[in-house]
Amino acid sequence: MSDAGAPRWECLAFADLDARRLHDALELRARVFVVEQACVFNDLDGLDPVAEHLFAWDGDALVGYARLLPVGTAYPDAASIGRIVVPAERRGTGLGTDLVARAIAILDERGTAKIVLNAQHALTDYYAAFGFASTGKPYILDDILHIEMIRTR
Q: Hey, which residues does 133 pair with through a beta bridge?
């Protein structure tokens, strides 16, 4: 990490993203979801322009990212957190936990009553620790087993 030891956080609307931030977010998402997880999928799903984008920076390096979708975007009565990603070299440091907790806090501050995420099934217990509960049966999404999870305040 940088000298301060803690990441610098930013949460920005799409219209406030400059080319560098957008590039770094898309590069990290592709590096982890497409290359590392060997998952060919359409990452550019049209939702980035309506989302808020949460960044964790270590100097100029993007070390964490999540996409926050407002109520009514992906779900009629819930907000959503997705594209949650930390590069391999930063996993196990607590950064992912901080990222998810911060995303939840941002949505809570906006008065969001319900948050949905489509968790990779292997991370069900991880997200349950944040108050998310499974809502149904696991399903395959982009060749990876997932499960829908909901957190209600």
A: 150
Model-level pTM greater than 0.70?
A: yes
Class of domain 8-152: alpha beta
Estimate the share of the chain in helix, then strand, then coil, as percent rounded to the nearest 5.
35, 35, 35
Q: What is the pLDDT of residues 55-107, one digit of tens each?
A: 999 999 999 999 999 999 999 999 999 999 999 999 999 999 999 999 999 99
Q: Domain spans of the chain?
A: 8-152
- Left (φ > 0), alpha (ψ -120 to 50) or beta: where does 38 sit? left
Long-range contacts of 31-39 (CB under 8 A, 24+ apart): 31/87, 32/85, 32/86, 32/87, 32/88, 33/83, 33/85, 36/88, 37/144, 39/142, 39/143, 39/144
